[in-house]
Amino acid sequence: MSDSAEVSDDSPDVEAELSRDMGLWGITFIGIGAMIGAGVFALTGFAAGLAGPALLLAFLLNGIIASFTAMSYAELGAAFPRSGGAYNWVTEAIPRPWGFFTGWTNWFAQAVACALYAVTFGSFFVEFLVILGPLHHDFVLFGVITHSVLAKALAALVVAFFAYINYRGAEETGQIGIVVTTIKVIILGVFVVFGSLATVKDPTWTTKFLGERGFFANGVTGVLAAMGFTYVAFEGYDIIVQSGEEVKNPGTNIPKAIFYSIVVVIPIYILVAFAAIGGIDITADILEIAGVSGTPADWTTWQLLGEMGELGIIQAAGQFVPYGLPLLLVAGLTATMSALNATLYASSRIAFSMSRDKLLPDPLARIHDDTRSPYLSIFASGGMIGLMAIVLPIESVAASSSVMFLLLFSMVNVAVIAMRKNRPDLERPFEVPFMPVLPILGIVFQLLLAPFLLTSLGLQPGLGPESEGFVALVTMLIWFALGVGVYYSYSRERELERMEAQTPAVVTERAPEDREYQVVVPVSNPENVEQFMRTAIDLAQENDGEILVMSVVTVPQQTPIAEGRAFVDEKREVIDEAMSFAEDENVPVSGTVRIGHDVSTAILNTLEQQSSDAVLLGWRGRGRRRDAVLGSNVDAVVTGAPCDVFVEKIGADADGSVDSILVPAAGGPHGELAAEAARAVAHSEDAPVTLFRVLSDGDDVGADVLDNVKAALGDVEVTVTEVEADDVADAIVEESANHDLTLVGATREGLLQQLVFGAIPEEVGRRAESTVVMAKRNLGITSRVRRWLRWE
């Protein structure tokens, strides 16, 4: 990637890039600024009311859980240093449309969080003016400007100011982030020092943490609720990776910035909670400020903090820090500004990246000639944020961003697992240890926190303080529904156009006939074309379908796609030969040659664009690389294809004729797909089928499975053979020697096994001397989730 920006234009060959101006400290402080933004002020008081003294533990546990996901962000952010973050990774790792919805969710979550910070800034600034004296609490200026109106106006102004700062470029954004975050950390340090001194001066200070109700004052449920409520405070690493395209030496600096941020932030949150709970003194004045009745003996410090909410630690500072109220308000102002700056920055980069990928309108990807910033994305995001800050009940709506961040972080953990499988050859400057255990723990804990977060916010229908969880759910449903409309009415078609541009079809031999069933046959080696086409013809005839023959011309990543046209004629000869076999059998057939940087991507794009029903791949019987199971291209297509997959290994003595077919009995949809394919070949070749059942201690196929496989075989001649054996794969390999073709379905395997089709089918495929076809049915979303989560 270049050090200077390239300006976007209407040419499809020119891609907008951002300038790398940010160093390690600039990006680290952006992350810290986001993590100890308005959350440390707005959330600590409420969370104390939920967890009691165990808030200290809640912050520590949140930091640990956040570290699991932070490692996933570090690996992917270093490997893909591009704007867009989670959106880009999910797009790479998981079939569409999940990339779009990840970006759509992240864009909204960052924008809502930014609007909340803007409104909080406005409220703090007005309160600051009240403390200084120019205004009183119940002021009404010019008969119309109240506290709320002035706060909203200031929110809009501060959004406009930081939109301009971001427009000026990433270097200015990073510099102001360092200044603002430094001020905030210093003031919080003062708060912690004076709060801790006030705590230990009281000889009975331990009772504030281990009093009558104990450390876990509200039980484990209270701790979990506080964790869900405050977890969003650790989302700063999402901001860091959004800057990947503008960071110097991203492979090293992005992981460092993520871990430095977490190491700094966790103790800050714990110490702030300790100082607030331990340092505050319960007096009649503080009870009046909190708006509660009773005597000081009736209340604990953590209960009062909960009652005072976002003003909790500010009022606490007023007790034990010299000039505490104005000082903490200044810290609150700087906190909201740094968090606002970071989330506006992230929101604009998500819009920029989605636009660059044709999922949002093209102008959002334009880069300014002078400032080298995505200025239209900045202004669009800033306008949306400012409008939300003014119009929406943002304090309620903002709860939805917390839940969305939990879902987003879970998707990133899914993506890092899937990427290890789909892209084993990817250069990874940082790798998550103990894969996939840590990402799975991140997914489990984050999804566990979501319901506690919603219940702690209140699920009562309405718009009041007891209904913020309900408002969050409704807001998410509305935004997701809007996303579905945008994707299927606008983005989906443009995404297909982008896929075509990535791997263009430069030669098309007749257009497909649009039959109900289509099988795609990628070909490259003329020696094996006839055998593959015989299998494809049998499948097409059985399903009254058509065949699409394709071949791929690959060019290096650094070479323009157009340069591959010089090699198209070589592939065209193979395509014509393959099509001739289908024409001889009167099967509808078409052909295409695509150009791309990667064979598997070209095949997957074709399957997506054609909405194909099946793909038939060839396999040598071994992988070329140790980190691939069947071969990197075959692995990628098998795990990513949105259709049924057949992988055929041609036997050494295969002559094209099939006189006998072997089908190992296996339950489930994959075994039934293998039987259906066997039926197609049997009808075409008039060949009998042997249904093979292995009786062993560990794998005894039941009678119901045999009945299901027989049903899938239909009216073909079937003979059932049963054998007893200790090793199922050995028995099948031995029996396959008596048949011309073996069709075996994929098996269900454990989560941690390095398998594509399963241990038995792959072992049979490697060792059998005759032709073997492995079958894997597309099961929709459940199949994809299982594939994504399988670590390799």
Give the beta-strand count: 11
Which term fits the overall shape? Answer: elongated
Q: How confident is the prediction overall: mean pLDDT?
A: 81
The main sheet comes to: 11 strands, mixed
Helix count?
29
Give the amount of beta strand, in percent.
5-15%
Secondary-structure content class:
alpha/beta
How helical, in percent, are the residues? 55-70%
Question: Could you walk me through the main structural features you see in this protein, from its secondary elements to its overall organization?
Answer:
The protein is α/β, with parallel strands linked by helices. 59% of the residues lie in helices and 8% in strands. The chain has 29 helices and eleven strands. It has helices at 24-35, 38-42, 44-51, 55-79, 86-93, 98-132, 147-168, 170-201, 207-210, 219-230, 236-242, 250-279, 284-290, 301-308, 312-320, 324-356, 375-391, 394-422, 437-457, 468-502, 529-542, 568-584, 599-610, 632-640, 668-685, 703-713, 728-736, 759-767, 781-789, and strands at residues 505-509, 518-522, 546-554, 589-596, 614-618, 644-649, 661-664, 689-695, 718-724, 741-745, 771-776. Strands 1-4-3-2-5-6-11-10-7-8-9 form an eleven-stranded mixed β-sheet, sandwiched between helices. Helix 6 packs across helix 17. The longest helix has 35 residues, at 98-132. The two termini are 29 Å apart.
